[in-house]
């Protein structure tokens, strides 16, 4: 019997840490491990400060390296370097999720000579000082990689660094399992919170941080018709500032802050909304998996034309409306167009669901990843 292909998945964090990349790494670790000829181990860092520990979560053999904390969005861990070197000795493939500068350094110091797959989720956008220090390591990693996975073509051509490596790049979209979104108890989760029971329900979910553009959305809502209410799910450092803006603009009756929503309630919110909106303003928003979660429920999406994967997920005038980032006027116009036209909302929503089923089904994505590992990387 042929030996199993041994894969080491590497990221800075893992479930129950919340985030799109963490969800993806969990998905890859669990699903690849179900193939009979593949063995997966996963290496991440501890959240916050803590010692190294090993776990088995839903069949995934996981090591969380000890950490001194997080600086510039990156864990600080000396033990990670040592553990990476040891775990890489038995790996046929190391699958690295970036940006995570500590992994680039670990690979350089490890002496590992096997295959390297890089999943490029985003350029470093905000931490410019870190980027100046990190750039030589990043170039080393991109040169060292046998294959670079990106979720859309927008990740390549919207990147400052990937175009020169386009021959190594393979498009592997992020995926969701449609069946996970149908088995929910459907309740009027948003409807029961409306000030006006006849209002159109606009929904946003995400961290309340600078690149999400929620401030632009709230500003835009001043120009949206009265029969429309906005629901904002999530928490973050801008929460109080955003609530103050809502009060300043006199929108308290039409803008509702829901805080953190557990998975079941989040799905109910997606199911109950009329329009989903992702008003992100920087390419730190590299894809927006939340778009898929809305689209699977047949909801039209308003997104922004970022130089990233965002506008490749929901397509302008096919599954929603795409506007320019930071443009509150266009954002308001898009909301008003969909607010006034139920038939258009339904048409775009039907197209959205069809697009997810055809292009972003997790089962197909995992099969494509399996093919990349076994064929295109020639193991």
Main β-sheet, spatial strand arrangement: 4-5-2-1-9-10-11-12
Q: What are the segments in which pLDDT stays under 50 over at least 5 consecutive residues?
A: none
Which percent range describes the beta-strand content?
Answer: 15-25%
How many individual helices? 13
What is the first-to-last residue Cα distance? 16 Å
What is the helical fraction, as a range of percent? 25-40%
Please state the overall shape, judged from the principal axes of the Cα atoms.
globular
Oligomer: single chain
Instruction: Give the tally of β-strands.
Output: 18
Radius of gyration: 21 Å
Describe the biggest sheet? 8 strands, mixed
Mean pLDDT: 92
Structural class: alpha/beta
Task: Spell out the key features of this protein.
379 residues, alpha/beta, six-stranded parallel sheet
Summarize, please:
This protein has 379 residues and is an alpha/beta fold.
Folded structure, characterized:
With 379 residues, this protein is an alpha/beta fold. 37% of the residues lie in helices and 21% in strands. It is built from 13 helices and 18 strands. Strands 4-5-2-1-9-10-11-12 form an 8-stranded mixed β-sheet, sandwiched between helices. Strand 1 (5-10), helix 1 (20-32) and strand 2 (38-45) form a beta-alpha-beta unit. Helix 2 packs across helix 3, helix 3 (101-110) packs across helix 4 and helix 6 packs across helix 11. It is globular, with a radius of gyration of 21 Å. 45% of the residues are buried. The mean pLDDT is 92.
